[in-house]
Specification:
Blueprint (H helix, E strand, L loop, with lengths): L13 H12 L4 H9 L14 H8 L8 H7 L3 H4 L5 H12 L19 E2 L1 H11 L15 E2 L4 E2 L1 E2 L7 H4 L18 H15 L12 H11 E2 L7 E2 L1 H12 L1 H8 L2 H12 L7 H10 L3 H4 L8 H10 L7 H8 L3 H10 L12 H6 L8 H14 L4 H23 L1
Antiparallel strand pairs: 1-4, 2-3, 5-6
Protein backbone atom coordinates (compact mmCIF):
# COMPACT_ATOMS: atom_id res chain seq x y z
CA UNK A 1 0.00 0.00 0.00
CA UNK A 2 1.31 3.42 -0.96
CA UNK A 3 1.46 5.95 1.85
CA UNK A 4 0.76 9.66 1.34
CA UNK A 5 -0.07 9.36 -2.35
CA UNK A 6 -1.20 12.87 -3.42
CA UNK A 7 -4.61 13.82 -4.78
CA UNK A 8 -4.23 15.42 -8.23
CA UNK A 9 -4.65 19.17 -8.43
CA UNK A 10 -6.84 20.79 -11.14
CA UNK A 11 -5.20 20.41 -14.57
CA UNK A 12 -2.24 18.56 -13.04
CA UNK A 13 -0.24 16.28 -15.30
CA UNK A 14 -0.12 12.65 -14.13
CA UNK A 15 3.67 12.84 -14.38
CA UNK A 16 3.49 15.75 -11.92
CA UNK A 17 1.37 13.73 -9.47
CA UNK A 18 4.05 11.04 -9.51
CA UNK A 19 6.69 13.72 -9.01
CA UNK A 20 4.92 15.00 -5.90
CA UNK A 21 4.74 11.46 -4.56
CA UNK A 22 8.47 11.10 -5.15
CA UNK A 23 9.13 14.24 -3.09
CA UNK A 24 6.86 13.04 -0.25
CA UNK A 25 8.34 9.54 -0.25
CA UNK A 26 11.79 10.80 0.66
CA UNK A 27 13.34 8.25 -1.68
CA UNK A 28 16.94 9.04 -2.59
CA UNK A 29 16.34 8.82 -6.35
CA UNK A 30 13.63 8.45 -8.99
CA UNK A 31 14.56 4.84 -9.77
CA UNK A 32 13.57 3.76 -6.25
CA UNK A 33 10.21 5.57 -6.53
CA UNK A 34 9.47 4.10 -9.96
CA UNK A 35 10.07 0.56 -8.65
CA UNK A 36 7.87 1.36 -5.65
CA UNK A 37 5.06 2.60 -7.89
CA UNK A 38 5.20 0.15 -10.77
CA UNK A 39 7.35 -2.78 -9.76
CA UNK A 40 10.36 -4.05 -11.64
CA UNK A 41 8.69 -4.13 -15.06
CA UNK A 42 8.68 -0.91 -17.09
CA UNK A 43 5.36 0.80 -17.86
CA UNK A 44 6.63 2.56 -21.00
CA UNK A 45 7.80 6.09 -21.53
CA UNK A 46 6.26 8.78 -19.35
CA UNK A 47 7.41 11.52 -21.68
CA UNK A 48 4.48 11.23 -24.08
CA UNK A 49 2.08 12.37 -21.31
CA UNK A 50 -0.48 9.74 -22.30
CA UNK A 51 -2.12 7.14 -20.07
CA UNK A 52 -0.49 3.75 -19.64
CA UNK A 53 -0.77 0.68 -17.43
CA UNK A 54 1.14 2.55 -14.70
CA UNK A 55 -2.12 4.28 -13.70
CA UNK A 56 -3.75 0.91 -13.03
CA UNK A 57 -0.70 -0.38 -11.13
CA UNK A 58 -0.78 2.66 -8.84
CA UNK A 59 -4.56 2.36 -8.35
CA UNK A 60 -4.16 -1.28 -7.28
CA UNK A 61 -1.78 -0.17 -4.49
CA UNK A 62 -4.31 2.30 -3.06
CA UNK A 63 -7.60 1.68 -1.22
CA UNK A 64 -10.41 0.85 -3.62
CA UNK A 65 -12.04 3.94 -5.11
CA UNK A 66 -9.25 6.34 -4.14
CA UNK A 67 -7.88 6.65 -7.67
CA UNK A 68 -10.26 6.70 -10.64
CA UNK A 69 -8.25 5.41 -13.61
CA UNK A 70 -10.60 6.88 -16.20
CA UNK A 71 -10.62 10.28 -14.53
CA UNK A 72 -6.81 10.31 -14.45
CA UNK A 73 -6.62 9.41 -18.14
CA UNK A 74 -9.20 12.00 -19.25
CA UNK A 75 -8.22 14.93 -17.03
CA UNK A 76 -4.54 14.43 -16.20
CA UNK A 77 -3.05 13.17 -19.46
CA UNK A 78 -3.18 14.38 -23.07
CA UNK A 79 -5.48 11.57 -24.16
CA UNK A 80 -8.52 13.80 -24.98
CA UNK A 81 -6.38 16.15 -27.06
CA UNK A 82 -4.45 13.48 -28.92
CA UNK A 83 -7.52 11.45 -29.89
CA UNK A 84 -10.09 14.25 -30.23
CA UNK A 85 -10.69 13.45 -33.92
CA UNK A 86 -11.27 9.74 -33.44
CA UNK A 87 -14.84 8.46 -33.15
CA UNK A 88 -16.09 7.70 -29.65
CA UNK A 89 -15.91 3.91 -30.02
CA UNK A 90 -12.25 4.16 -31.07
CA UNK A 91 -11.49 6.48 -28.15
CA UNK A 92 -12.98 4.02 -25.68
CA UNK A 93 -11.06 1.12 -27.19
CA UNK A 94 -7.76 3.01 -27.16
CA UNK A 95 -8.34 4.15 -23.59
CA UNK A 96 -8.89 0.62 -22.33
CA UNK A 97 -5.88 -0.67 -24.25
CA UNK A 98 -3.70 2.10 -22.84
CA UNK A 99 -4.71 1.37 -19.25
CA UNK A 100 -4.35 -2.38 -19.62
CA UNK A 101 -1.23 -4.50 -19.28
CA UNK A 102 -1.59 -5.77 -22.86
CA UNK A 103 0.25 -2.93 -24.58
CA UNK A 104 2.49 -0.07 -23.50
CA UNK A 105 0.65 2.19 -25.89
CA UNK A 106 -1.69 1.11 -28.69
CA UNK A 107 -0.49 3.29 -31.58
CA UNK A 108 2.68 4.97 -32.77
CA UNK A 109 2.65 8.77 -32.49
CA UNK A 110 4.82 11.42 -34.17
CA UNK A 111 7.73 13.07 -32.37
CA UNK A 112 5.88 16.16 -31.01
CA UNK A 113 3.84 13.76 -28.85
CA UNK A 114 6.95 12.40 -27.17
CA UNK A 115 8.14 15.38 -25.20
CA UNK A 116 11.72 16.14 -24.27
CA UNK A 117 10.70 19.32 -22.44
CA UNK A 118 8.29 20.48 -19.80
CA UNK A 119 6.52 23.83 -20.22
CA UNK A 120 5.25 26.11 -17.50
CA UNK A 121 3.67 29.50 -16.91
CA UNK A 122 5.45 31.68 -14.31
CA UNK A 123 2.13 33.21 -13.22
CA UNK A 124 0.53 29.78 -12.76
CA UNK A 125 3.52 28.72 -10.66
CA UNK A 126 3.07 31.76 -8.44
CA UNK A 127 -0.66 31.09 -8.03
CA UNK A 128 -0.10 27.39 -7.33
CA UNK A 129 2.35 28.18 -4.54
CA UNK A 130 -0.04 30.69 -3.00
CA UNK A 131 -3.03 28.30 -3.20
CA UNK A 132 -1.47 24.86 -2.65
CA UNK A 133 1.93 25.59 -1.17
CA UNK A 134 3.76 24.03 -4.13
CA UNK A 135 4.02 24.38 -7.90
CA UNK A 136 3.16 21.59 -10.33
CA UNK A 137 3.17 20.79 -14.05
CA UNK A 138 -0.10 21.60 -15.86
CA UNK A 139 -1.61 19.29 -18.48
CA UNK A 140 -2.73 22.03 -20.86
CA UNK A 141 0.73 23.61 -20.90
CA UNK A 142 2.20 20.39 -22.33
CA UNK A 143 -0.07 20.23 -25.40
CA UNK A 144 2.07 20.19 -28.56
CA UNK A 145 2.27 23.62 -30.22
CA UNK A 146 0.65 25.41 -27.27
CA UNK A 147 2.94 28.36 -26.59
CA UNK A 148 0.63 30.50 -24.44
CA UNK A 149 -0.96 30.04 -21.03
CA UNK A 150 -4.56 30.73 -22.00
CA UNK A 151 -5.46 31.74 -18.45
CA UNK A 152 -2.84 34.50 -18.13
CA UNK A 153 -2.05 35.18 -21.82
CA UNK A 154 1.56 34.63 -20.84
CA UNK A 155 4.24 32.93 -22.95
CA UNK A 156 5.12 29.49 -21.64
CA UNK A 157 8.70 28.80 -20.53
CA UNK A 158 10.56 25.54 -21.08
CA UNK A 159 12.48 23.52 -18.53
CA UNK A 160 16.10 23.64 -19.69
CA UNK A 161 18.80 20.99 -19.95
CA UNK A 162 16.56 18.01 -20.63
CA UNK A 163 17.60 14.98 -22.68
CA UNK A 164 15.36 12.56 -24.56
CA UNK A 165 15.45 10.05 -21.71
CA UNK A 166 15.13 12.55 -18.84
CA UNK A 167 11.35 12.38 -18.41
CA UNK A 168 11.19 8.60 -18.71
CA UNK A 169 13.78 7.98 -15.99
CA UNK A 170 13.29 10.89 -13.59
CA UNK A 171 10.53 12.47 -11.52
CA UNK A 172 10.83 16.14 -10.64
CA UNK A 173 8.69 19.22 -10.07
CA UNK A 174 9.11 22.91 -10.91
CA UNK A 175 11.65 24.72 -8.75
CA UNK A 176 9.65 26.04 -5.79
CA UNK A 177 11.76 29.18 -5.43
CA UNK A 178 12.17 29.84 -9.13
CA UNK A 179 10.94 33.33 -10.04
CA UNK A 180 10.76 34.02 -13.76
CA UNK A 181 9.46 37.26 -15.19
CA UNK A 182 6.25 36.76 -17.19
CA UNK A 183 6.49 37.41 -20.92
CA UNK A 184 3.19 39.00 -21.98
CA UNK A 185 4.37 39.96 -25.47
CA UNK A 186 2.25 37.56 -27.51
CA UNK A 187 0.36 37.71 -30.80
CA UNK A 188 -3.36 37.21 -31.23
CA UNK A 189 -2.67 34.32 -33.60
CA UNK A 190 -0.61 32.52 -30.94
CA UNK A 191 -3.28 33.14 -28.33
CA UNK A 192 -6.13 31.99 -30.58
CA UNK A 193 -4.36 28.83 -31.77
CA UNK A 194 -3.35 27.91 -28.21
CA UNK A 195 -6.93 28.51 -27.05
CA UNK A 196 -8.34 26.14 -29.66
CA UNK A 197 -5.76 23.44 -28.85
CA UNK A 198 -6.53 23.73 -25.14
CA UNK A 199 -10.26 23.34 -25.83
CA UNK A 200 -9.50 20.14 -27.74
CA UNK A 201 -8.07 18.88 -24.44
CA UNK A 202 -10.80 20.20 -22.14
CA UNK A 203 -14.00 19.34 -24.03
CA UNK A 204 -15.90 16.19 -22.97
CA UNK A 205 -14.50 13.05 -24.58
CA UNK A 206 -17.77 12.59 -26.52
CA UNK A 207 -17.13 15.74 -28.56
CA UNK A 208 -15.64 14.96 -31.93
CA UNK A 209 -16.26 14.90 -35.69
CA UNK A 210 -19.85 14.41 -36.83
CA UNK A 211 -20.61 11.65 -39.33
CA UNK A 212 -23.33 13.68 -41.05
CA UNK A 213 -21.48 16.95 -41.67
CA UNK A 214 -18.22 18.84 -41.31
CA UNK A 215 -18.68 22.27 -39.78
CA UNK A 216 -15.03 23.17 -40.22
CA UNK A 217 -15.34 22.66 -43.97
CA UNK A 218 -18.60 24.63 -43.98
CA UNK A 219 -16.87 27.36 -42.00
CA UNK A 220 -14.15 27.59 -44.64
CA UNK A 221 -16.80 27.85 -47.37
CA UNK A 222 -18.55 30.63 -45.45
CA UNK A 223 -15.24 32.47 -45.10
CA UNK A 224 -15.08 33.08 -48.86
CA UNK A 225 -12.87 30.07 -49.63
CA UNK A 226 -15.59 28.17 -51.50
CA UNK A 227 -15.77 27.42 -55.24
CA UNK A 228 -18.92 26.08 -56.91
CA UNK A 229 -18.17 22.93 -58.90
CA UNK A 230 -20.42 21.05 -61.29
CA UNK A 231 -21.94 17.92 -59.73
CA UNK A 232 -20.61 19.09 -56.33
CA UNK A 233 -21.97 21.76 -54.04
CA UNK A 234 -18.64 23.43 -53.31
CA UNK A 235 -14.95 22.76 -53.00
CA UNK A 236 -12.21 24.76 -51.30
CA UNK A 237 -10.07 27.30 -53.15
CA UNK A 238 -6.96 25.84 -51.57
CA UNK A 239 -4.67 28.40 -53.20
CA UNK A 240 -6.48 31.24 -51.43
CA UNK A 241 -6.36 29.30 -48.16
CA UNK A 242 -2.65 28.70 -48.64
CA UNK A 243 -1.96 32.37 -49.31
CA UNK A 244 -3.74 33.42 -46.12
CA UNK A 245 -2.17 30.65 -44.03
CA UNK A 246 1.32 31.68 -45.13
CA UNK A 247 0.59 35.31 -44.36
CA UNK A 248 -0.76 34.57 -40.90
CA UNK A 249 1.46 31.72 -39.69
CA UNK A 250 4.60 31.93 -41.81
CA UNK A 251 6.05 29.58 -44.41
CA UNK A 252 8.02 27.27 -42.09
CA UNK A 253 5.10 26.61 -39.76
CA UNK A 254 2.63 25.87 -42.58
CA UNK A 255 5.02 23.64 -44.52
CA UNK A 256 5.67 21.69 -41.32
CA UNK A 257 1.96 20.88 -41.01
CA UNK A 258 0.65 20.96 -44.58
CA UNK A 259 3.65 20.02 -46.70
CA UNK A 260 4.53 21.34 -50.14
CA UNK A 261 2.11 23.19 -52.45
CA UNK A 262 1.76 20.07 -54.60
CA UNK A 263 0.41 18.13 -51.63
CA UNK A 264 -2.00 20.79 -50.44
CA UNK A 265 -4.44 20.33 -53.34
CA UNK A 266 -5.44 16.93 -51.95
CA UNK A 267 -5.47 17.93 -48.29
CA UNK A 268 -8.93 19.46 -48.21
CA UNK A 269 -10.65 16.30 -49.43
CA UNK A 270 -9.18 14.59 -46.37
CA UNK A 271 -10.15 17.52 -44.17
CA UNK A 272 -13.72 17.32 -45.49
CA UNK A 273 -13.97 13.63 -44.62
CA UNK A 274 -12.21 13.91 -41.23
CA UNK A 275 -9.52 11.54 -42.52
CA UNK A 276 -6.73 13.18 -40.52
CA UNK A 277 -6.77 11.95 -36.93
CA UNK A 278 -4.31 14.31 -35.24
CA UNK A 279 -5.67 17.74 -34.28
CA UNK A 280 -3.10 20.31 -35.46
CA UNK A 281 -4.31 20.86 -39.04
CA UNK A 282 -7.89 21.31 -37.89
CA UNK A 283 -6.80 23.75 -35.19
CA UNK A 284 -4.74 25.84 -37.63
CA UNK A 285 -7.65 26.09 -40.09
CA UNK A 286 -10.05 26.91 -37.23
CA UNK A 287 -7.72 29.70 -36.16
CA UNK A 288 -7.64 31.03 -39.73
CA UNK A 289 -11.44 31.44 -39.79
CA UNK A 290 -11.86 32.17 -36.04
CA UNK A 291 -14.10 29.14 -35.46
CA UNK A 292 -14.63 27.84 -31.94
CA UNK A 293 -14.34 24.06 -31.34
CA UNK A 294 -17.90 23.97 -29.98
CA UNK A 295 -19.09 25.05 -33.44
CA UNK A 296 -16.76 22.62 -35.21
CA UNK A 297 -18.18 19.70 -33.20
CA UNK A 298 -21.78 20.94 -33.06
CA UNK A 299 -24.55 18.48 -33.91
CA UNK A 300 -26.23 21.31 -35.82
CA UNK A 301 -24.82 21.85 -39.28
CA UNK A 302 -23.64 25.34 -40.14
CA UNK A 303 -25.86 26.99 -42.74
CA UNK A 304 -24.06 27.63 -46.02
CA UNK A 305 -24.32 31.40 -46.41
CA UNK A 306 -23.85 31.34 -50.19
CA UNK A 307 -26.62 28.80 -50.74
CA UNK A 308 -29.00 30.60 -48.36
CA UNK A 309 -28.45 33.97 -50.02
CA UNK A 310 -28.68 32.43 -53.50
CA UNK A 311 -32.06 30.85 -52.72
CA UNK A 312 -33.34 34.02 -51.07
CA UNK A 313 -32.36 36.16 -54.06
CA UNK A 314 -33.99 33.66 -56.42
CA UNK A 315 -37.37 34.33 -54.76
CA UNK A 316 -37.18 38.14 -54.85
CA UNK A 317 -39.44 39.94 -57.33
CA UNK A 318 -36.76 42.02 -59.04
CA UNK A 319 -34.51 40.66 -61.77
CA UNK A 320 -30.93 41.69 -61.11
CA UNK A 321 -27.88 41.60 -63.29
CA UNK A 322 -25.71 38.51 -63.27
CA UNK A 323 -22.75 40.63 -62.26
CA UNK A 324 -24.60 41.99 -59.22
CA UNK A 325 -25.76 38.52 -58.11
CA UNK A 326 -22.23 37.13 -58.41
CA UNK A 327 -20.75 40.06 -56.49
CA UNK A 328 -23.38 39.74 -53.74
CA UNK A 329 -22.58 36.04 -53.33
CA UNK A 330 -18.82 36.53 -53.54
CA UNK A 331 -18.47 34.12 -56.48
CA UNK A 332 -17.53 34.40 -60.13
CA UNK A 333 -20.29 34.87 -62.72
CA UNK A 334 -19.53 31.49 -64.31
CA UNK A 335 -20.22 29.81 -60.96
CA UNK A 336 -23.82 31.09 -60.87
CA UNK A 337 -24.88 28.67 -63.59
CA UNK A 338 -23.25 25.81 -61.66
CA UNK A 339 -25.06 26.85 -58.48
CA UNK A 340 -28.38 27.04 -60.30
CA UNK A 341 -27.76 23.57 -61.76
CA UNK A 342 -26.75 22.04 -58.43
CA UNK A 343 -29.70 23.58 -56.56
CA UNK A 344 -32.21 22.97 -59.37
CA UNK A 345 -33.05 26.68 -59.60
CA UNK A 346 -33.99 28.45 -62.81
CA UNK A 347 -31.45 31.26 -63.45
CA UNK A 348 -33.09 34.35 -62.00
CA UNK A 349 -30.66 37.03 -63.13
CA UNK A 350 -31.42 39.12 -66.20
CA UNK A 351 -30.69 37.43 -69.47
CA UNK A 352 -29.74 39.28 -72.63
CA UNK A 353 -32.98 40.65 -74.15
CA UNK A 354 -34.18 39.60 -77.58
CA UNK A 355 -32.76 42.32 -79.83
CA UNK A 356 -35.69 42.29 -82.29
CA UNK A 357 -38.27 42.43 -79.54
CA UNK A 358 -36.40 45.25 -77.81
CA UNK A 359 -36.38 47.35 -80.99
CA UNK A 360 -40.05 46.71 -81.65
CA UNK A 361 -41.17 48.30 -78.40
CA UNK A 362 -38.55 50.96 -78.02
CA UNK A 363 -39.73 54.32 -76.68
CA UNK A 364 -38.40 57.51 -75.14
CA UNK A 365 -38.95 58.89 -71.66
CA UNK A 366 -37.99 62.35 -70.48
CA UNK A 367 -36.59 62.78 -66.96
CA UNK A 368 -35.49 65.70 -64.88
CA UNK A 369 -31.88 65.67 -63.78
CA UNK A 370 -32.85 64.55 -60.28
CA UNK A 371 -35.14 61.80 -61.62
CA UNK A 372 -32.44 60.45 -63.93
CA UNK A 373 -29.91 60.52 -61.09
CA UNK A 374 -32.36 58.48 -58.98
CA UNK A 375 -32.75 55.94 -61.79
CA UNK A 376 -28.99 55.56 -62.13
CA UNK A 377 -28.46 55.27 -58.37
CA UNK A 378 -31.17 52.60 -58.15
CA UNK A 379 -29.62 50.59 -60.98
CA UNK A 380 -26.31 50.54 -59.11
CA UNK A 381 -27.76 50.08 -55.63
CA UNK A 382 -30.16 47.22 -56.44
CA UNK A 383 -28.12 45.48 -59.11
CA UNK A 384 -30.24 45.96 -62.22
CA UNK A 385 -28.55 45.23 -65.51
CA UNK A 386 -29.56 48.60 -67.01
CA UNK A 387 -31.77 51.63 -66.54
CA UNK A 388 -34.29 49.97 -68.88
CA UNK A 389 -34.44 46.95 -66.58
CA UNK A 390 -35.13 49.19 -63.57
CA UNK A 391 -37.88 51.07 -65.42
CA UNK A 392 -39.51 47.81 -66.55
CA UNK A 393 -39.37 46.56 -62.95
CA UNK A 394 -41.10 49.73 -61.72
CA UNK A 395 -43.80 49.40 -64.41
CA UNK A 396 -44.34 45.78 -63.46
CA UNK A 397 -44.61 46.62 -59.75
CA UNK A 398 -47.16 49.35 -60.42
CA UNK A 399 -49.15 47.09 -62.78
CA UNK A 400 -49.23 44.28 -60.20
CA UNK A 401 -50.35 46.68 -57.50
CA UNK A 402 -53.04 48.07 -59.78
CA UNK A 403 -54.29 44.56 -60.61
CA UNK A 404 -54.40 43.71 -56.94
CA UNK A 405 -56.42 46.92 -56.30
CA UNK A 406 -58.96 45.82 -58.90
CA UNK A 407 -59.26 42.34 -57.40
CA UNK A 408 -59.86 43.72 -53.91
CA UNK A 409 -62.49 46.23 -55.11
CA UNK A 410 -64.30 43.65 -57.24
Amino acid sequence: MLQYFPTPYPDELWYSVLGRYHVRSGNPNSATTLRELFGAESVGGMGNFLPNCGIRRVAEKLPEGVLDERDIALHHTLFPYTFRFQDLATKERLLEQALSEKVKFPIKLPKPYTSTVLKYCPLCMREDRERYGEAYWHVTHQIPYVTICTKHRCRLRMKDDMKKWTLNDNLFLPMDKEEIEADLDITETEAELSGILVKYQELPIEKGPMETHNNLYEGLLNSDYGIARKDKNFSIDYKSVETDLLERFGKDFIEEHFGTPVMRAAIFGNIRNWNYKLPERYAILSTLIHQDPEITFSEERIENKTVSLFLRMSKEPMTRSKKYVARSLGVKEKHLDILAHNLNVVPFWEQKPDAERAKEYRGYVCFTEDEWAYVQDSVSKYGFQSSSAFIRFCVGQYRDRENMHFIIND
